[in-house]
Amino acid sequence: MKKEIPNITFDKNQDLGIEVMNFDELVERLGHTKGHSPYAVHRIQFFLILMINKGPYTHFVDFESFTLTEGSTLFISKNQVHHFTEGLKACKGFCIIFKYKFISSAPLSLELLKLNRIFNYHLGNPIVHQHELKDDSLIKLGANLHYEYSIENSFAKIEILNALLQVLLLKAERAKAAQTVSGVKLHCLDVINTFKNRLEKDYIRTRNSRAYAEELLVSYKFLNDIIKKLTGKTAKAFIDDYVAIEVKRYLVSTALSIKEISYKTGFDEPSNLVKFFKKNIGVTPLKFRQQFQ
Questions:
Q1: Of 105, 181, 187, 235, which is most buried, counting CB atoms within 10 Å of its CB?
Q2: Residue 194 belongs to a domain with what CATH number?
Q3: Could you say which DSSP state residue 14 is in?
Q4: Digits of tens for pLDDT over the chain (293 positions)?
């Protein structure tokens, strides 16, 4: 029987809280990975950025494939599942991984994570392509981050890396600004991010959107309105989409039975899971699993 989705934590340079590699270094690292295959589905407990200088390259995140070309940058959030593909070995670029603690170590960085739509995969496309940047470049910032990370001089290293990462996030957000909803207040983004974090933690206990609104000390109407404004979905649909993704993760990455998955994802009976999955995905859980075998 397969193990459940491996939870991969940030286990190098704990004091620094960030790691920057070019793709040659990344491929070598992946080749020495123990305990799981980086080319199979795994869940990450840190933030990940992939920047392509020479491609194309296809990466899989939450059962979707994303094609990156020269100048493209992919943002993968903590708690998402993903896997690398063999095409990485023929590409050039940079990989940046960092812990939440690193990006939240400066006040501006904390606000960036709240404001930045790119890491919030429920709110928009996680890729910035070169044509969206026009004459600007995220790759140059990736190269600067790699240089600063690699040099031996440690004076103000954390501060410089943090500043460079802030600039990268700001430029990425600027490139996406035209595609996002305007006039959204920071408080609304705080609420929806807190809601998402609560949902990730408690969806097994409850999928009642009114209960989450009560916990967040906001009205159900307010919560439903901001979710609809930012995602085009009702609060209930948002919750159902998240639960469906979690079920998919178990179906594809484990050999657990439907009965076992139903209990792990908060369903009282396997028949309720099957009914829910077929309604939201269009096929039964078993047929979905068969598509990935």
A1: 235
A2: 1.10.10.60
A3: T
A4: 344 556 666 566 567 889 999 999 999 999 998 888 899 888 888 999 999 999 899 999 998 999 999 999 999 988 888 999 999 999 999 999 998 778 766 555 555 555 456 777 777 789 999 999 988 999 999 999 999 999 998 899 989 999 999 899 889 888 876 555 555 666 787 788 889 889 989 999 999 999 999 999 999 999 999 999 888 899 999 999 999 999 998 898 788 999 999 999 999 999 999 999 999 999 999 999 998 76
164 and 73, same structural domain? yes
Are 126 and 231 contained in the same domain?
no
| Sheet architecture: strand order including 47-54 | 18-22, 92-98, 47-54, 73-76, 127-128
pTM exceeds cut of 0.70: yes
Same-domain check for residues 245 and 127: no
Kindly state whether residues 28 and 79 are assigned to the same domain.
yes
DSSP for 194-263, written as a single string: HHHHHHHHHTTT---HHHHHHHTTS-HHHHHHHHHHHHSS-HHHHHHHHHHHHHHHHHHH----HHHHHH
- Angle between helices 220-231 and 235-253 in degrees, nearest 10: 60
Q: What is the number of domains present in the chain?
A: 2
Verify that 165 and 65 share a domain, yes or no. yes
126 and 241 inside one domain: no
Start-to-end Cα distance in the chain: 14
Burial of 230 (0-12, 13-18, 19+ CB in 10 A): buried
Q: Are 138 and 14 in contact (CB under 8 A)?
A: no
Residue ranges making up the domain that contains 196? 186-291
Task: Please report whether residue 226 resides in a domain.
Answer: yes
